[in-house]
Amino acid sequence: MKLTKFEHACLVLEKEGTTLVIDPGNYSHDFIMPSHVDGIVITHEHPDHLDQALIGKILAANPKAAIIAHESITGQFSDHPTIPAHVGETHTVGAFTLQFFGGTHASISSSMQVPPNLGVLVDSHLYYPGDSFAIPEGVQVVELAIPVSAPWLKISETIDFLNAVKPHLAFPTHDAILSNEGKALVDKLIGSTAHSLGAVYKRLDGSSVDL
Questions:
Q1: Among the four residues 148, 150, 189, 207, which has the most C-beta atoms within 10 Å?
Q2: Hey, which residues does 92 pair with through a beta bridge?
Q3: 165 phi, psi to nearest 5 deg
Q4: CB of 143 within 8 A of CB of 171?
């Protein structure tokens, strides 16, 4: 599997002729359209994960691409193939197997309503929790896309999440609101925790890696 990490929370996965885009949002300014797209996985409907204009461009170029998301999102795309996903379900898209966890977006404030959120486990080893710290119980996560900055997050929660999941590789996501200095501080703190676990912490911004 080839993973390409774009700004903020957008991932592109390629395997055996199948390409998935995960969370193409409005902060992913460096996004490059793949040559073809088979599926778009959306963890929740906040615009930094679901940019209607960007998704429209992807679907215009790939009209057979399926939207895989909570039914509150798939219902918005009635003119395209959709796969409504629920916690505990497993779905196959081409060469990829997707399992869904969590179901609830992390709280921002007691006065603010949040949408459903689905964490997704790809091929039983790459886990992306969306805007949550939902742990995929009973799974040994190999690679973890770990949120590091958000209105709903404090760094101690990120560190606790990393300690709970214990991946072999962790890379930061959800950090478009950080300055370069903020990213360096996050990398120092989370990288130290990863090292104590015997894991690798690596920033992948704008780059690709084979998993």
A1: 148
A2: 97
A3: -80, -40
A4: yes
Cα–Cα distances (Å) from 185 to 29, 142, 155, 182, 189, in that order, read 23, 24, 10, 5, 6
Distance CA 200, CA 24 (A): 26
Is residue 138 a contact partner of residue 131, using CB atoms and an 8 Å limit? Answer: no
DSSP 208: E
* pLDDT digits 0-9 by tens, 151-165: 999 999 999 999 999
State how far the Cα of 114 lies from the Cα of 35, in Å rounded to an integer.
34
pTM for the predicted model, two decimal places? 0.96
Phi/psi region, residue 129 (left: phi>0; alpha: psi -120 to 50; beta: rest), is alpha
Question: Are 41 and 24 within 8 A, CB to CB?
Answer: no
Distance separating alpha carbons of residues 205 and 172, to the nearest angstrom: 9
Give the span between the Cα atoms of 126 and 113, in whole angstroms: 29
User: In the numeric block, which tokens belong to residue 10?
Assistant: 């957008």
Amino acid sitting at position 28: S
